[in-house]
Amino acid sequence: MIAIAQVVGTHTVLGQVLMYVAPTVSVVAGTVLYQLKLQADWYGERWQVRRARKTLERQLGSPHASDDHKAWIKKKLEEVDQAVAEAELSRVRLIWQSPKR
CA torsion angle for 65, 68, 74, 77 (degrees, to 10)? Predict the structure, then answer.
């Protein structure tokens, strides 16, 4: 935006508006992009968890799996649930730790 302001002319009203608005636009754009990245990461994480659960549940339902293996699979499913809960709690803690507005 600064480059555009210089082309337009910094002595013009439009040029000065562009120069003064550029930092605000930069901060807002950065915040929006950061939030989009967080959402994409969260969706990717949820997708991986669903995929892992589906795989474990499919193995658990297999008639060829032994009782020991099924017990191991149930333990892994509990670990997945625990990891998801811990990740959600860490997100909540981050919200609580954010500065007061």
Answer: -80
CB-based contact 77:57 (threshold 8 Å): yes
Q: Residue 73, Cβ neighbours under 10 Å: how many?
A: 19
**According to the model, what pLDDT value does residue 94 have?**
80
The pLDDT tens digits for 49-71 are 999 999 999 999 999 989 999 99
Q: How many CA atoms lie within 13 A of 51 on its CB side?
A: 6
Identify the domain containing residue 31 by its residue range: 2-97
Which alpha helices (H) appear in 1-101, and where do they start and end? 2-8, 13-60, 67-97
Q: Are 73 and 59 in contact (CB under 8 A)?
A: yes
**Tally of structural domains, the chain:** 1
The mean predicted confidence, pLDDT, of the chain is 89
